[in-house]
């Protein structure tokens, strides 16, 4: 077993007597939030740890194809239903020279990756990524440019290389390197987490805002229709949060389409050594507040500038991450820069998966603001898919809420969540709803509902009141739950946790009822 975080039993927090509660969701077609944006099911591949090397790319692996892409991983990525893939970072991009990753592989330089104290071999780069995406189901590439150690000139070079069909130095270089057709990348991130002091080339809001504005303007001279993402805050809790958004948007508002937001959650360790599971299960409350706060900054800037342009949110890093704990410690030492070390290889529990499902519900509830999002990351690094070098690939617990939500929500419309829920107390967020849910009306007329029971103790009878005249002929409910909320899938027990059919689903006079066990995530499809 790799040296990774396996949740310890007995960390459940507190135990009280189980009681039964009731919650209700009203499905009302009259109140739509907006379409389900396909890009909300994006993910993220960074040159970090084993996400690329021995993750998606491992020449010599028994399932690898002629380009070294692991077919077992491609199969799981397709099943996951991920859409947009953000690449190549993350913190990595802020020291990356994109030119190092193109051209004959034997000529590509090995470089120090300052972000993750590793060695980057550059055996995988833009061409490999574009080709891998085609094989993984035609997912969209969301490319990040380096605004840490580099700037406008290099971003323009990369855009010319990637998108100009032919007849210029950079486009001809791409053709010589094997790509006759341009990559036609539509969505571009203007740097990564530039507000973070840990970022190579970290900048003040003023300096970054001016740089991002000039890079956006330059890139638009090549292609005015690009979709550009300017860096928002790395977390809701950054000291600069709010002021950063205000300053950066002031400089860039009319030139960008998205502001980014990033958020990672984990159960904090309390003074008595236990983990604050109650607050952790309510992480969606914080994400929702974050989205509302960024939305307010966007609206305020829009009014101040008297602009009729609109900027949406790209929540392009979100997940559970046991940040700062053992698997996330960077290698150290002057001579110690390993290639693809095991980094950020968190093993996810049932409770973690319930939180991931809850965060996805929250992103959908805010479909009017959040038009794109990326689960960080895709393989091995805080990821729904794990691999062993020369060994198997398997699904973490968090794989399931993502794949089922993607499968049942894509193409539909999000309805306003009208929920009546009991409350429970958290140390971090006060009293919060114990049931979080969202309904999606499918293009085929079906209704899909995604719901979490955040309570550590109480089972909940959840009623879904259907629209007038909606007569279902089939109800399917799938639940992710385990009596051991810390149960996980591991190399040696890859199928320990899987969603099961929730047989409690029943229908009576226009209402579907489902029993939700404590700490559970459920998807219900009503056809
Ligand atoms: O996803 C892991 C890291 O988290 C990313 O590299 C960075 O952008 C964020 O801090």
Tag the structure with descriptive keywords.
527 residues; alpha/beta; 8-stranded parallel β-barrel; 7-stranded antiparallel beta sheet; 10 helices; disordered N terminus; binds alpha-L-arabinofuranose
Your description of this structure?
The chain is α/β, with parallel strands linked by helices and 527 residues long. Helices cover 23% and strands 24% of the residues. The strands form 6 sheets. Strands 3-4-7-8-9-10-11-12 form an 8-stranded parallel beta barrel, surrounded by 6 helices. Strands 2-15-19-20-26-22-23 form a 7-stranded antiparallel sheet, with helices on one face. Helix 1 (71-80) links the parallel strand 3 and strand 4. The longest helix has 22 residues, at 283-304. It is globular and about 70 Å long. The model is unreliable at 1-15 (pLDDT under 50). Residues 46, 48, 89-91, 192-193, 234, 317, 376-377 line the site of alpha-L-arabinofuranose.
């Amino acid at each position: 077993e790799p040296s990774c975080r396996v949740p310890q039993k007995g960390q459940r927090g507190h135990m009280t007597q189980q009681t039964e509660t009731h919650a209700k969701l009203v499905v009302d077609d009259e109140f739509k939030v907006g379409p389900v944006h396909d890009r909300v099911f994006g993910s993220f591949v960074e040159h970090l740890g084993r996400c690329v090397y021995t993750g998606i790319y491992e020449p010599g692996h028994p399932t690898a194809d002629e380009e070294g892409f692991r077919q077992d991983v491609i199969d799981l990525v397709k099943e996951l239903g991920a859409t947009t893939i953000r690449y190549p970072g993350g913190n990595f991009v802020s020291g990356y020279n994109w030119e190092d990753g193109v051209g004959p592989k034997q000529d590509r330089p090995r470089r120090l990756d300052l972000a993750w104290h590793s060695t980057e071999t550059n055996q995988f780069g833009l061409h490999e990524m574009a080709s891998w995406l085609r094989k993984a189901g035609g997912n969209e590439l969301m490319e990040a440019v380096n605004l840490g150690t580099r700037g406008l000139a290099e971003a323009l070079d990369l855009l010319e290389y990637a998108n100009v069909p032919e007849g210029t130095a950079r486009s001809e270089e791409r053709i010589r390197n094997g790509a006759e057709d341009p990559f036609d990348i539509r969505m571009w991130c203007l740097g990564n987490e530039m507000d973070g002091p840990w970022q190579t080339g970290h900048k003040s809001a003023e300096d970054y805002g001016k740089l991002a504005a000039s890079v956006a303007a330059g890139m638009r001279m090549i292609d005015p229709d690009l979709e550009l993402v300017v860096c928002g805050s790395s977390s809701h809790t950054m000291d600069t949060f709010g002021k950063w958004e205000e300053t950066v948007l002031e400089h860039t508002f009319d030139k960008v389409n998205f502001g980014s937001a990033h958020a990672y959650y984990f159960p904090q360790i309390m003074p008595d050594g236990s983990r604050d599971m109650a607050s952790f299960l309510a992480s969606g409350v914080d994400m929702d507040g974050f989205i509302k706060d960024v939305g307010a900054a966007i609206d305020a800037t829009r009014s101040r500038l008297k602009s009729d342009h609109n900027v949406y949110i790209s929540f392009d890093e979100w997940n559970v991450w046991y940040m700062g704990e053992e698997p996330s410690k960077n290698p150290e030492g002057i001579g110690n820069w390993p290639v693809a070390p095991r980094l950020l290889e968190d093993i996810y529990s049932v409770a973690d998966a319930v939180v991931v499902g809850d965060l996805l519900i929250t992103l959908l509830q805010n479909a009017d603001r959040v038009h794109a999002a990326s689960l960080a990351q895709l393989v091995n690094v805080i990821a729904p898919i794990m691999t062993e070098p020369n060994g198997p690939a398997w699904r973490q617990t968090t794989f399931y809420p993502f794949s089922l939500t993607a499968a049942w929500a894509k193409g539909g419309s999000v309805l306003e969540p009208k929920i009546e829920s009991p409350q429970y107390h958290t140390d971090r967020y006060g009293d919060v709803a114990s049931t979080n849910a969202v309904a999606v009306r499918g293009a085929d007329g079906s209704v899909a509902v995604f719901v979490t029971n955040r309570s550590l103790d109480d089972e909940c009878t959840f009623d879904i009141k259907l629209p007038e005249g909606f007569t279902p002929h089939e109800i399917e409910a799938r639940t992710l739950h385990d009596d051991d909320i810390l149960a996980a899938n591991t190399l040696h027990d890859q199928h320990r946790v899987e969603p099961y059919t929730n047989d409690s689903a029943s229908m009576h006079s226009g209402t579907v009822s489902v029993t939700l066990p404590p700490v559970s995530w459920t998807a219900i499809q009503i056809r």
